[in-house]
Every structure is written in structure tokens, then in C-alpha cells.
Amino acid sequence: MTRLLILLIGLLAGSVRASIDGFSGFSSISSSVIHPSGPGGAVLPATGPTLVPPGHSTVPPPGGTGAHCALAVTAAGGQSSLVDHTRNVLLGQSGPGHIGGGTCITYEAVSAAFEQAAARYQLQPQADYSDVEQLGLLGEALTEVAASLAHTYNLPREAILHGLPLIDTYQTSIAAFCPAHLSAGLQCVSAPKDVLGGLPLPSPRRVSGTLHNDQGRHDHAVTVMLVAWGQMIDHDMTFTAEVKPKEIGRNGRPKMPDCCNDPRHADNPLCYPIVIPAEDEFYGLYGQRCMNLIRSLAGVHNHCKLGPRDPINTVTSYLDASFVYGSDEETARRMRTYQGGLLKTLPVFRELGLKDLLPPNLHAPDEGCIRPSNDIFCFDAGDNRVNEQLVLATIQTYFVRDHNRIATELSLINPHWDDQTLYQETKMIMAALCQHITYNEFLPMVLGREVMERESLILGKGYKYDPTLEGSTALSFATATFRFGHSLLPAVVERWSVSRKYIGSRRLSELLRQPYDMYRGGFIDQYVMGLINQVAQAMDNLVTQEVTNHLFQMPENRFGMDLAAINMQRGREHGIPGYNDYREYCGLPRITDFSQLHDLMVNDTALGYRAIYSHPDHIDLWSGAISERPLAGSMVGPTLGCLIGEQFRTLRYGDRFWYENHGFPSAFTPEQIGEIKKMKLSSIICDNSDHIDHIQPYVMVLSDPEM
């Protein structure tokens, strides 16, 4: 390309450049027209965001010369096709002319933008897209194409959201790269939400240090077991794809790109570090001004369509106990013994009469694990976050034990069943137990009866599968609302004897990615007894410093990361709307003045928001939602109650394999469903512990000492 061409295109693009606000799913959409222009052309009627299939528009392309347009837009402020026209003239190519002042994005322009992005990410046609990182790199390239087109043509916001996805990418060079299983404004496209209404958002670390600094208040009803269960089912439903570390650190182990200190990553588009204020009371002691954070990998839309950036959920969104079995074939195979339907375990204490542990992670020993030496291993499970904290590994150990216990019993009852039948039948039972315990023990405590009834979540009141519901997890749920449990995390994790006597405790930060106490005989029972006897932190806006100052702290450091700040930074990175937008979505009144917050939360918190944020619309969803006073009989406020309740209604009624559904050949019989409904989490603990034989029936609720 000649310098003259580059200069002309740059001048044309620069002359019409405009800022595009971050996407809010609840904002009104202004009108523009996107016309079809030959095969694969896209249409957006002038009446609003309703889309018309290609080839069905009743509105002719302006000027009648849009036959080569992948997308034609007539809207004030849209870049004309002069960019493509100039390019074609200077290169001696034929192409479309002007279309009456509208925008004509040609297939050639889309291909050129993609080829440049593909070279940047070193993509190869039909790469191994079973590797989620390869898929993520393709997603990054497609997001870059969308951003490039939006930038070059100064596309209006609704054209980005509703027009770009209609481009037929199979008529471009993208087709050769699109995975087979998918073949069937700028900030609006990719950039994180750092500015709203022209005003910068405050540093998430500043919000965390001011509004979410722990004061040690405790709940008076729920145990830490509720927190552990919530994290386990969260891992069952959501796992946003991340870049895998490729560099090797000084300790010889893989490390993520250092976006704070390594100049090689100054322009890395995956870097999104958190700014630490100079006056930070904790990190200032160690001279830290930056917290490293890597962006989630970009997803690939169906048919490799262009449009706003979306992350990838790498696990099944349903409650199906995938934390035991995995969400992909490779993980599922790795977990199995292929004998008697059993899962792999580590029989390290079998000679002492104690039950097996999870198998060691030999295939990726450094993944999610802080190892003191090369001969010490974390554990392997269906979800590789099993080692994030010891209590999570403990509960997952009980589920693997229960799978093997049930598979063994089924083999005795049905000696003619082979390994595959035993495995699949047991897996279906374990998924049903996970669903039943969640809706029978966990959600009633979190949401309360009023929300449970409103969202039809109470078991035993009839069930009918709804095929119109898509049982996926909402981005707001994965990124913000179901992270409410971080407020409940304790500063220490206690061990209790089977006779309910306190033994000791360890700091939570010492057990994050370091589950090695499980290798000590008898400790797994002691930690489980601690989970059902230790009171959780209060459900409020405060989060323990063990995860706001010491999250994943390396042994050589005296500081770690800040989980609360990461929650808010992730929400901004994923472009989810703010707290006020979701209040409106839930039918609650918007906050127009900070003084109105005093009706929703404690006074100190309301005053804190006024001091930090420029406008109520800027409040991050996670921060505002966990700060609300709880509803009557609930642990959470109205916004969390609305969003969590809605998500679990979708997961229940949108799951064809839900354990109460009778509509498919392998469904449970009414008698089998009745047996499943007799089970409690306490039953699984008693059946699979070493020496626990007497605990409260509902282990997420603190036992009554008088009973």
C-alpha cells in the first residue's frame, strides 16, 4: 500500500472519528438504516433494532450501487464509502462508489481488516480450536476487525451492536479460519468501560479500600459450608477463558505477562492492570502502584460473526457436577479409571483405614497451584480451580468419593452393567444431587422464601421444562452478582473434632492454591467439621483482608492481590452495565442522587459512594449490589435477589436434563426422584467421611446447641 493511500485513508478516517460510549444493554437505541446490498447484505430497519434477514429488505440501497456492500448504513455521522472508493481507485481496482452519503462496508474491506489481525495473532486456517487459547486468539482477531471497521467508518452505536453481526463472514477471508463447530462505538466493541459520561471511573482498588475494608462482623445463622458450596457450584456453571502463561519466572515456573513492570507488555492488548492509588494504606507500605491483571480471552460468535467482544465460558453452564467430571472429553477421560465406572483417586491413607483423596495433578502441576518444591503436587479434578482454596478441594473430594461409592453399589445391584453404563448412571445421579442440594438447602438461605416463590424455585411445586429458555449463565451473573459470596469469606479456616471441639485454624490466605493439609491423615474430616461449625462473615459490603490484600500471595511476598478490586475490574472489562442500570432492569427505582442510597444501605457506605464516585450511574454492579440491606428473610438485597433468582430460574426450567424432567428416555422414574429428594448434603458427608457420624441435618445452617 502506498504512503499516499495510507495518508488519504488516515485523513478520511480521522476526519470523522467520534467517541462511542460503552455498551449498556438497558439504554435506548437510536435509529439508523442498514440495508441489504446483494447476497449476504444486512438490514436494520429505521424503526428500531428489529433485524430483517438478508434479501428481505423493502428499502433499496441509497444510490443503487451497493451490490458489493457487506453492510450498508444510512445514518447521520456515518462514514461514507469514500474510504473504500479511494482505496479501490488508488489500487486500480473496481468497486462500489458512493451510496448517497451512507456507509458501504465492502467484503474486501472486511477481509483486509481480518488478514491484518490474523497476521498480528499468527493465526492459521482451521487451527486446533479444541485448544481454548487458539479459539480465544481467533476471538481477539475478530474483535479487532469489528473495532477497526467501527473506527474506520465511524459507525453509530446501533450499527456496531446490530449491524456488524449481520455481515456474512463466509464471503470474506474469515471463512477459512472459522471453526467447523461454529459454521452453521470502539468501546462498544472491545475497550473496557473506564469512562462514563466523559468522567473517569475511580480505581477499583480505591473503591475496595474505602468501601469494602473488613471490620470482622459475623453472620449469626449460616456456616462457612454455605460459602464453600456457593463457590463449588459457581465453578460448575462459569469459567471465563484466560490466557495460559507462556513465560518462565525466576523460580522456573510458568508466569503470566507482567503488565505492571515489563516494558515488553506496554502495548499488550490483553493487559488491563489495576491502578493502586499512591495513598493506599496497605500497598503503599510496599511501594506498589499497579496490580497485574490479564483480560479474558475474546469469544467467537456463531458463524464467526462480527460484533462486540464477549468472553468465553469454558464449562457447561448447567448444574451438572462438571467440577467432578469436567466439561470436555479430555478432562473426562483423565478423571476415569475405566473400571467399574470409577473415578481416579489417591489411596495414600488406605492402609490406615482412611478414604482416598483426589488424584494428584500430574498433567499440569503448576496450574493454579503454589508449589513449595517440585515433588509436591496439588490435586486434579473435573475443574482445575479445585485448589483455589483448601475447603473447595475438601468438598470436591467428598463428591468423588460419593461417585465411587454409588458406582460400586450399582455394580452389585446390576452385575451385568459395563463400565460405561455404571459411569454414566452414577454421573446422572451426582448431577441430580448437586441440583437438589442447591435448590433445597443453598438457595432458600441466600434468597429467602419470597424470592424463591416469585421465581418458582421451590421444589415440589410442579415442574415443566421450558424449551424456549436458553440455559446459559448471564455475563452479569458470572462477573458480578454470584460473586456476592466473597463478602462471606472468613479470615481464618477452622478445624474441629468429630465431637464438635475447636482444634485450631489457619489464615485463609495460607490455604489459597496450597491445599497441602489434606495430605495429613484425618485433617479432611477436621476441616469439614470446621466448615459446618464455623460462622461465616456477615453478608454486607465488607470483605476480609485475607483476599483484599493477600489473595494468591506468593511465599516470598508480604502482599497479594485484591479480590474485590478484581471483581469490579472484570465487570468493567466485560462491559457489563452499572448498578443503577440493573436496578432499573429489576423494576427498582434508579438512584438519581447519592442521598437516596441511605434508604438502601448503611449510612457510612452511602457516604463512601458519594466521596468516590462522580455520579450514581457510575457505581459498579458488584459493589453496589452487595452493599444493599437484605430483604426480609434473605441474605441479599433486592438487586441481587432479582438477578440471582432469575438466573437460577433459567437454569432450572431451561435444562432438558433437569432431574425432575420426565420428558426424555433416560429420565428418572418418580420413585427415583423421590429417593433423590430424601438426600441432603449432610448425607453425603456422613457416607463419605472417615469418622464423622453425627452432624446437623442442614449443614449450611449453624446447629442449635440445645439440640
UniProtKB/TrEMBL annotation:
Q: Where in the cell is it found?
A: Secreted
List, alphabetically, the InterPro entries matched.
Answer: Haem_peroxidase_animal, Haem_peroxidase_sf, Haem_peroxidase_sf_animal
Which residues hold heme b? 486
Where does the signal sequence lie?
1-18
Pfam families (UniProt xref): An_peroxidase
Q: Name one GO molecular function term.
A: heme binding
What keywords were assigned to this record?
A: Heme, Iron, Metal-binding, Oxidoreductase, Peroxidase, Secreted, Signal
PROSITE patterns in UniProt: PEROXIDASE_3
A Gene Ontology biological process noted in the UniProt record is:
response to oxidative stress
Cellular component terms (Gene Ontology): extracellular region
By what name is this protein known? Answer: Lactoperoxidase
